[in-house]
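Subject: sequence -> structure tokens, single chain

Hey, anyone have a minute? Need the predicted structure for the following. Not urgent.
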Amino acid sequence: KNIEEQMNLNYPVEMGNGTPCSLRQKLPRSSTVMYICPAEAKHKILSVAEIATCEYQVVILTPLLCSHPKCRFR
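Reply:
Had a minute. Here:
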């Protein structure tokens, strides 16, 4: 994930089966929570956006992800 012109590790979590969306024939709302690893960042919500009708994206900065063994740059 590119944040402020720097590539960062990320871990997306898909969430579905939300409340019915009246704008999409009562299909359930969905969200993607993107956990981003910028080592120098504090824990914070960077953004919340509706990327398509009734589809949302939340970007969370957390240095905790950086220490996980599977989250190392190769």
